[in-house]
Amino acid sequence: MNAHALIDHIRIRLQAQRAPLLAEIHALTRDLSRLETLDGSARALADFLETVDTLDTKSKSELLAQLPSAHT
Question: Does 71 map to a domain?
Answer without folding.
Answer: no
